[in-house]
């Protein structure tokens, strides 16, 4: 099969595209023909070796943890799906090696969910990692409730855009923080208020919007936005971060969790329902072919992308 891969950690320019053996499904596994694979900042971080102490690796590594595709072949006892079914999944395995920037990938059948039918395959391929990250952060770690006020730091990126929509579907009030050029975009997705992080202190801007402190801060950005806004979180409020596992907290009564997303087919089922109800959109900013994966990784590494970037083998 054709695949993008690298044989050691280092610069992104070493990612190449060539021919590797097509994987074979084992017991309880399925072979997927990849139709679309979302590109995420973690893909670049893994290629640079930034997670090598946290997750075991075997070379050569095919990057990519998102997939939407078609069931091509089923291994022994894999009978939840039929050949030809369209599915999607968050494809991270316990060992980093067989990713989704390839024509085929083998995954445990338990990872898979039927993909949303009322959006494109490319949009479906951009959902799993960011959708599950947002879902697990807001509802599993954060227990977001109807009527809660939610401040999203980094609201125009892949995770942030899904978080806006999931929070609005749950009945929360959303304040999105991103650059000025993305404010209309965030409002189209449902944000009630928007803040430009480059226009001044984020915390002061939050207080100008509401006299009440926020119930929940979802931190999916880098920079100074969290330190500027942490004082707007109410006593006993919830802070969830996906970018900082040990933030400096001004008070011990902040309920903090760090989230590193895990595969969860049932949660993907719920996200599929919301997408087919028209409550989730996945704006695709750009698509790349396998020969362009290095460029895609460099683009996503900037952390200033809008919407989702997708590889289409």
Question: Could you explain how this protein is built, in words?
Answer:
Helix 1 packs across helix 9 and helix 3 packs across helix 4. Helix 5 links the parallel strand 11 and strand 12 (about 195). The strands form four sheets. Strands 3, 5, 6, 8, 9, 16 and 17 form a seven-stranded mixed beta sheet that branches. This protein has nine helices and 17 strands. The protein has about 325 residues and is α/β, with parallel strands linked by helices. It has two domains: about 1-125 and about 280-310, Medium-chain alcohol dehydrogenases, catalytic domain (Quinone Oxidoreductase, Chain A, domain 1, Alpha-Beta Complex); about 130-260, Rossmann fold (3-Layer(aba) Sandwich).
Keywords:
about 325 residues, alpha/beta, Quinone Oxidoreductase, Chain A, domain 1, Rossmann fold, seven-stranded mixed β-sheet
Q: How many whole angstroms does the radius of gyration measure?
A: 19 Å
The CATH topology of the largest domain: Quinone Oxidoreductase, Chain A, domain 1
Broad shape: globular
- CATH homologous superfamily heading of the largest domain: Medium-chain alcohol dehydrogenases, catalytic domain
Output the structural class: alpha/beta
What is the CATH class designation of the largest domain? Alpha Beta
Largest β-sheet summary: 7 strands, mixed
């Amino acid at each position: 099969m054709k695949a993008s891969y690298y044989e050691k950690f280092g610069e992104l320019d070493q990612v190449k595209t060539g021919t590797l053996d097509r994987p074979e499904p084992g017991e309880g596994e399925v072979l997927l023909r990849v139709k679309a694979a979302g590109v995420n900042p973690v893909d670049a971080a893994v290629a640079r070796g930034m997670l090598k102490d946290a997750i075991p690796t075997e070379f050569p590594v095919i990057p990519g943890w998102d997939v939407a595709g078609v069931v091509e072949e089923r291994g022994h006892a894999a009978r939840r799906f039929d050949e030809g079914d369209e599915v999607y999944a968050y494809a991270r395995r316990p060992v980093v090696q067989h990713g989704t920037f390839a024509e085929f990938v083998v995954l445990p059948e338990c990872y898979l969910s039927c993909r949303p039918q009322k959006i494109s395959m490319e949009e479906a391929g951009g959902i799993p990692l960011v959708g599950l990250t947002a879902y697990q952060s807001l509802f599993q770690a954060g227990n977001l409730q109807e009527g809660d006020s939610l401040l999203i730091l980094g609201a125009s990126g892949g995770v942030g855009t899904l978080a806006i929509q999931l929070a609005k579907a749950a009945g929360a009030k959303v304040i999105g923080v991103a650059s000025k050029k993305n404010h209309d975009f965030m409002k189209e997705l449902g944000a009630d208020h928007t803040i430009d992080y480059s226009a001044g202190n984020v915390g002061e801007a939050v207080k100008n919007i509401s006299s009440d402190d926020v119930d929940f801060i979802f931190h999916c950005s880098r920079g100074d936005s969290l330190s500027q806004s942490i004082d707007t979180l109410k006593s006993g409020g919830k802070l969830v971060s996906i970018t900082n596992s040990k933030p400096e907290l001004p008070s011990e009564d902040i309920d903090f969790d760090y989230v590193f997303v895990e595969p969860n087919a049932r949660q993907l089922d719920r996200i599929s329902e919301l997408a087919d109800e028209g409550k989730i959109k996945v704006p695709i900013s750009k698509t790349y072919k396998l020969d362009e994966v290095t460029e895609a990784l460099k683009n996503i590494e900037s952390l200033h992308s809008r919407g989702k970037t997708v590889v289409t083998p």
